[in-house]
Structures are given as C-alpha cells and as structure tokens.
Amino acid sequence: MWKEIGDRERGILRPKSFTTRIKSNRIRTLQISNHKDIVSPHRASINSLQVDLTEGRYLLSGAADASAAVYDVQRATDYEGGGLIAKHKCLFVVDKQHEHGHKYAISSAIWYPVDTGLFITGSHDHHINVWDTNTTQVVMNFKMPGKVYRTAMSSLATSHMLIAAGTEDVQVRLCDIASGAFSHTLSGHRDGVMTVEWSTSSEWVLVTGGCDGAIRFWDIRRAGCFLVLDQSHSQLGRRPTIPEHSSTNKALTSKSLSSGQNLNAKLRAQQRKLANGNGTKQSPVGRMPAKGTLRQRLHPGMLSSLDRATAHYGAVTGLKATEDGMYLLSAGSDSRLRLWDVESGCNTLVNFETVRLQAGKPIQLATSQDSALVFVPCMTAVKAFDVWSGNTSQTFRGHYEYVNSCWFSSQEQELYTGGNDKQILVWSPSRLIADEVDEGPAQDRDNWSD
Amino acid sequence: MDKTSEEASSKGKKRQRDQQPTDPQTNQLHHQILSLEDNLSFTDTLVALRMMRAQFPRIDKVSIQPFILRSQLYSSVKDRTQVDRELESLRREKVVRIFKLNTGQDDHAVMFFDDYLNQMENVVKRLEEKEGDLEVFKWFRTQVIDSKLEPSIEHQELYTLLSLGGMVKDGHISLLINAGLLILKSVVLWSFSVLASYTRQLIDPNMYWFAIPNIGSVLKGLSQGRKEVLSFLNRRRYKEMMLASMEKKRLRFSPLDMRFHLRDLIGSGHLKTVQTSTGLLVRVSKD
Fold it and tell me: Which of A359, A375, B58, B268 has its CA 20 to 30 A from that of A391?
C-alpha cells in the first residue's frame, strides 16, 4: 500500500490505475458491515433499492407494504456501541397512511437522475407517483393498465424526461414528467414486461425484458424495436471474430450481424413466399392464413413484433447494462445469467454458476464500477461473479430470506442488499475497529505534571 | 498424444471411480481413443464427451444411442464457459447436435451427429414395416438436419427446407411429429415460480423443437432417477455419503446407472463433492 502511494507520488503509477487498484482491493474484502447499520422502517419485503446518482448519499428503498423510505448513508443519525456502530435511521417514510400514497406493494422506487428533488415510485396498485422529496407530496400521478413491475429513467437524458414503465400489460409505456401525459407506447412483447433499463450509452435506447423471455432494444424515436436478443445467436468471446474469406466463417458472421438487419430481410422474403403460396397451402393449425394477411398489413417497422426469439427459457427477471454500454447482463427465471454483446446482439456464452435464481419477481442486479464484478441475488445469498469468466468470486450470506435487490455504491465501495426479511444489509470493506477508536477523544496522558 | 495423457491424469479423480466398470468397457474406450486420435483434434470437452459416450449404460428394453447431458459436461470439465464455447464450436462444425429436453430447467442433451443419424435410421426402419410414405424422412435427413443446426426450427423454415426435396403435404409434418423427431414448442410461462397456481402454457404453433426419437421412457427414468438419488441422500441423517459406496447402489426407477445420475446432479449443482481423507464425499448442497 505504501509502495503504491510512493509510486503514485513519483508518477510511476497513473492516478486512474491507483484508484482502481485500491477500489478493487476494498471490494475483495467486502463483508457484512461491522460499523454501519441501516434501520429499516418497512414491515414487508424490500423490493427496490437505489442510491442517488448525483451525490451518492441518499438511499431510496421501496417495500411491499407500500412504503418508501430515504436514508442518508454517509452521515449516521446516531451511534451505538460506544460510537463504533453507526445507525442510519430513515430521514422520512411515505406509506399507506399518506393521503396520496400507494395502496399495494411498491415494486420500484427510483430517484430522478438529475437531482434528489424528485423520486418516482411504481406500485402494484397500477399507479406511478412522482414525489417531491422536500415536501413529500405527490406532484404527478400516472395510471397504468396493469401492475407496475419496473420504472426507469435515463441518467444520460438531456432532451427528455421520460419514465419507462414495465407493467403486466404487453406494452411498455413512456410517461413524460414535463407534460404529465404518456408520450408513446412500445409494443412487441407478448406477455408482461418485468424489467426495463435505459441504455448507458445512448439516451434514446431502452432495453426491456419480458415474461415471454424476450429482450428487446427500442429506439424511442422510431416505432418497433430494432434488436431482439436470441440465445441461439452466440459468439465465442467478448467480441465477434474478424471474418475471414471462407464459407464456414461467412455463416458465423451472418449469425453475429445485428439480428435486426437479417430479420427484416428474412421476414420480407417470407412475406413474399406467403403471398404466393397462400392459396395452395393448408396449414395444420388453422391460424396460419390469418397470420399471413396480418403480416402483409403490418408496417415494416413493426415486423419485429413477429420475431419470437427468446433470450431465456423463462421470464427475464433482471437486466443490467455495463457502464460502457457495450454489454448487457440478463437474469432469467430459468436460473441462468447471460452476458450479451450489445453491438452484435449475440450471447457471449459466459457461464455463470447459478444454481437457482428467484423466479416470479423482478430482481435487481448490480455491477462494480468498472464492471468487472456483477452482484446477483441468488435466493438467500448474494453472489459476486466475475463478468468475463463466470467464476463465483464471493458469496454474501446474511439474509434470512430471499434477496430481491442489491445496489453497489462505487463511491464508498459498499453493497446494499434488501430482501424478503424486511432488512437492508450493508456490506462494506473490512475495517479494523482500532481505526475507529483512534478517532475518539484522545486522552492526553502526558499532561500529568505541570 | 501428450494431451490425452494429461487429460487422463487431470481426470484422475474420475478415473478412480471408473476402476469399477468391467474390462471390456475400458478396452473399448482405449480402442476408441486410439482410433479417433488420428482424425480429430482434441479439446477438453470433446474428450469428456467421448469418455461419457463410452460409459453410457446399456438399456435392454429400448435401443437408444448414447447421449450426454450438458450438466454432466459441467461436472467433468472445470471451466464452464470453456465447455459452453467448445460445445458451440463443435455444434457449428456438425460434430454434435444439441437437443433441448423437457425434463425441467434448461436441460440439454448432446449427441454425436452419427449417433443421431443412426437413431433416426432405426426409427425409420421400424416405421417402414407399417407405412410406405417415407420420402419425408429422407428429405428431413438431407435438407433439414444438415443445414439447421439450432435445437428449434420455425414452421415456415421447415416447410421451405423440406420442399427442396419434393412436394410437402401437411400429413408429412404430422408423420415427423409422430415419429418423435419434432415436438411442438410450448411456451411455458411462469412455470418455475414458487406458486404453482400461476402456471400458464401457450402452444406456439409456429415453432418446433428437434427431438431424439424413442427417448421418452429414458427421460422419464432420468427425472425419476434424479428424484430417487436426491431423496435417498436427503433421508440420511447428514445428507451425505461416500462416493464409492453410492456408486454401488442400484436405482429402482431408472434404467440409467448411478454414475450417470451423479454426474448430472453434480453438474447442475444439486449435489457437491467434498474431498476428504478417505475419498470423495457427496453431499446435498443447500442453496
């Protein structure tokens, strides 16, 4: 450690690599915190956790008893154990008693990405509320056609303030805070949408995962999705191989091209074939002729709704994009975690050793700051996997029941996890108790004689 | 040459268990490795595949070609990502074919291409005695199997590929389904949720899974055998047993042998092995 500081002084070690080294060392020693405790006022399972993106100071949690609470994770409200354990009580809590509060479980609570003046909660009572943090009043309310599973706002957006909402309904709705109305809907999924995430590289791209197992990429400026991830399209490695001039490799590259382009060409060809063969062919299942005419009537941008490629053999329960926007991690109810290359739309075939993942509820994944580790709630434990090799790096066991969400704060290198046992646990790098004691009032033992 | 001995020693742990099988089997394995060695390159997964293919248990009632489950590969090769990637490249080179099984979560069976073609031949031969119209199987074999390497296929694509052989009628596709070569894809929604009341099933009329014909009874034996092994270990006081003594047990409900099931359960994470001073211990994993 001292040698590294010396190297940094002399300029042998660059500042960025110095900080990354220290941060990754701290992450490697993550364990349940012995000096920090968050006192959760919730009386039901915690569904969503988020630390605000501007200061990294306030933690927002949403629970199944329709309560949402905010905690300050940097300054404790009081100390216990002789000043050694910092207790963080909530700054305020909004629950069912609030006049405009939610009536059923809150499934998603997120901060407004620009500042902490607003936060947005989505609940199973079909409503999305936008709250003013300082007055804890609801300033805007959106009614959805079904239970809201996830809400998301883009942290990169400079020209729009849209909340993307994934609900039980097959359509993804975009709600505009500026106007108070719905801006548009995105259709294509064949069942409810469990997870929505904005892309970390473009403010116009939204990724959604549905209960039908499909992951779709939408550009909100256009109709229809431009990419549907298919788990059978795979590439062997982080990026697709550079094509050589041989027939086998041509097949490889055609598979690894963005499936959107191939898809449209294939469907147009099929459309033509159907138009010719519709009269003579009798389908074994009576839906085919109707399908044929339906295809011909669809707008070319909507052809993607016919693509039935699935990314998982069950519902997609969690999505997380890496910070550079090049890779996407998805968790499914088939207990598989997959890493996708966004550019080529292929499965990179990294195998994460997950035995069972919680199905039936959306889970929240977290990545460490340079996206080398991904924290996944696996039943009652949280496992940290190395993103590129799929090996389990650490297992965090502490919750008594299933873990629903985790959030990694890269400023403090701390992990916050919330689960069905109504607790929010803090996992921080190990700190010697001796350091804390030194900060206390030091007795001046030398001052015994005048 | 060096690679085989190295792999054999790295699998020394597995070899120890294999001291039990009879000599003809090991001789057969030895012979196989020698003969294939000249033709194909070795990857770790390929060696594991061949070893397990040679150790596939003989089932008297059903004639079935050896297949390997994906979870068995995970238990015999250390790096799972490497297994996935090598399987993918083997599949693309048409050395093996991967089928999705309907026994529970994400089960895949890997079968060597030639074994699959042999299996198809056996089925077609048996059907030949009953009906005459068998050109569709020829078309299936030449047009579809060769070109479509994924485990599932869309109806439209199947139709177009078969018609490259000749005039296709709907009766032909039902023949294929009856022979067990194709299965209608049913999208099961929410089937893995803890609350079973939420299961919904949609039959997707446009997609088919490729399937191994005549495998039904073996699959039933597979799921029953899994349950039997797990319940046997769960009934014990400490939910564990020495691997050596477990292997000697015979299963009542499954035609597949104990070694097959152990590999499968260890690879899928239901059981874990612990090295002790007296040998390997098999324990039910709690997670």
Answer: A359
Question: What pLDDT score was predicted for residue A444?
Answer: 57
B129 interfacial to chain A (CB closer than 8 Å): no
Nearest to A219 by CA among A207, A204, A203: A204
- A:B CB pairs within 8 Å: 92
- Give the H or E element holding residue A92: strand A90-94
Interface test with A, best of B80, B81, B90, B176 (most A CBs within 10 A): B81
List Cα–Cα distances, A447 to A284, A396, B211, in angstroms. 98, 47, 87
Per CB-CB distance under 8 Å, the chain A contacts of B173 are 284
Which of A 267-306 lie inside 8 A of B, CB atoms?
270, 273-274, 281-285, 287-288
Q: Please state, in angstroms and as integers, the Cα–Cα distance from residue A305 to each residue in A255, A342, B145, following that order.
A: 20, 19, 28
In 3D space, the residue among A410, A362, A363 whose CA is nearest the CA of residue A383 turns out to be: A363
Question: Which residues are CB-neighbours of A65 under 8 A, at least 6 positions away?
Answer: A42, A43, A44, A95, A96, A105
Who's near B162: CB < 8 A, 6+ residues apart? B136, B139, B140, B143, B144, B168, B172, B173
Rounded distance between C-alpha atoms, residue A265 and residue A110, angstroms: 39
Cβ contact, residue pair B187, A359, below 8 Å:
no
Q: Which residues pair with A392 in a beta bridge?
A: A385
A336 and B106: CB-CB below 8 Å? yes
User: Which amino acid, one-letter code, is at B179?
Assistant: A
Pairing of strands A78-80, B152-154: unpaired
**What's this model's pTM, rounded to 2 decimal places?**
0.80
Is the pLDDT confidence value at A268 over 50? no
